User: What shape does this take?
Amino acid sequence: MFAKHTVLAAAALLAAASANAQVGATADVGTTGVGFHVVVPMETYLNGRFGANYFKHNFSKTSGQVDYDIKGKLQTFDVLFDWYLNEGSNFHLTGGLVYNGNKFNAKARPNGAGAYAINGNLYSAADVGLLTGRIDYRKAAPYAGIGWGNALAPNSRWTSNIDLGVFYQGNPNVQLASIGCTTSQTVCKALASDVAVERQLLRDDMNSTKLYPVVRVSIGYKF
Assistant: This one.
């Protein structure tokens, strides 16, 4: 739903820009991945930006005593507004809203002895089966930041821009489960209880990502 409204907002911005026969486009790279933005004038000191960013990020992480292979997909859509403090200034304050599609899939790895230490208890790989999880965040994330550059600068077709900011993802939604426990019901029940504790540990470790940092550089062209 948010993505649909984002597209409609972008269409409105472009329609407003067409009346002024002025629109800019940027190619971006940074902590949000690679992306693009369309830039349109709103008021004398205010530009609107609409864009999308994407990146795949795979890494390893240890939480508690469990090692995970994590496959991440960073995918965001921006509706941002740049306020320039005075005419001709490149410095701007930025606020807006980000549709946050960032998510991570986690798969636990057994240790060198072929076992898992879950909540301090050892389980064989055969007992655990697959220990997998998923991490995602709230979809609507407010953004605040500062920047230098203006894709609609009057004195040049080609421009550059730097963004420094954060968007608020909130507490992570963490799912973690053991799939394929084939041992006794008693062991499987104890395993499920320990996995629930491990899920909370993983959630606590991921709380540091509530605020997602944005460092982005762009090259722009004004049409």
Notes: The CA atoms of residues 20 and 215 lie 30 Å apart.
